[in-house]
Design a protein that fits this description.
Elements: E1 12-13, H1 20-32, H2 39-44, E2 48-79, E3 85-108, H3 115-120, E4 130-131, E5 141-142, H4 149-176, E6 180-209, E7 212-219, E8 225-227, H5 233-254
Parallel strand pairs: 1-6, 2-5
Antiparallel strand pairs: 1-4, 2-3, 2-6, 6-7, 7-8
Length: 256
């Protein structure tokens, strides 16, 4: 349970849309497409002991207002002292205000599982949640949050800031027909903040290959798969050699 605050009851639950058999099928299709995975691993990877778990997530809605300053660059061609054509960038200052409504920014409420795998099965359709009832989670394990509301909000603000930075960068490029943006400074206000505490469905499993365990997860709502796989050194070598050969061929053609 979260330290320092009374534990809240879940406000909603996104129920499992896939059963264990369907999740296993999603995994099989996923691993077939992993080029660097050894053929033997694909054939012997039989997920066992599929475990359905409801994990705690916080979601946040907020109206953001961001004041920003930045420099945008516009490229142009010029000839240098050697007579060669080179690209130079002219830089200009800009500033403005960006308003954006953020809907259901998700933050995982547990640290027990690998964050990289959890990120790999996002997003969830969190709008498709039902008011919590114990019967919805019957037959599945469910975890309480270990990351409380205050800490989750701090993490959400960081994730939202990253999103705003990307969106403002694109906005500047589009507004000024710029090629690049640098020195972006932002000051963001968060208004009308609302949160939900939801339980979201995950299928977890693993497979063994050459005495090593590989974990993976399947989004119990959408079927999206995330996992770690063994890598074939032979396939990596073939790919690298192929890329080098292709680049060498292009260079040879360009210099004919």
């Amino acid at each position: 349970e979260a330290k320092g605050e009374n534990t809240l009851a879940p406000g909603g639950v996104c129920v499992f849309k896939l059963d264990a058999k369907q999740a296993a099928e999603k995994f099989k299709n996923w691993i077939k497409k992993r080029w660097f995975c050894p053929k033997e691993a694909k054939e012997t990877a039989k997920p066992k002991d599929f475990k359905g778990v409801y994990l705690p997530y916080w979601t946040f809605d907020t109206q953001t207002t961001t004041k920003f300053t930045a420099e945008y660059g516009i490229n142009r061609q010029k000839r240098n002292s050697k007579g060669e054509t080179v690209t130079v960038t002219d830089w200009y200052n800009c500033s403005g205000t960006h308003r954006e409504f953020v809907d259901d920014q998700t933050v995982c409420g547990t640290t027990r599982h690998e964050q990289g795998l959890l990120n790999g099965i996002l997003p969830y359709n969190t709008a498709d949640n039902k008011s919590y009832k114990p019967e919805y989670v019957a037959g599945f394990a469910s975890e309480r949050y270990s990351i409380g509301l205050k800490d989750a909000w701090e993490k959400a603000k960081s994730l939202i800031s990253g999103r705003l930075k990307r969106n403002i960068t694109e906005k500047i490029k589009n507004t000024y027909h710029a090629d690049s943006v640098r020195s972006l400074q932002m000051s963001t206000g968060f208004g009308n903040i609302k949160y939900k505490y939801l339980l979201l469905p995950v299928w977890m499993a693993c497979f063994k290959y050459k005495d090593k365990i590989y974990k993976f997860m399947v989004n119990g709502q959408t079927g999206k798969v995330s996992g770690k796989i063994p890598v074939s050194p032979v396939k990596v070598t073939i790919t690298v050699v192929g890329v080098i050969a292709a680049l060498a061929l292009l260079w040879w053609i360009a210099n004919l």
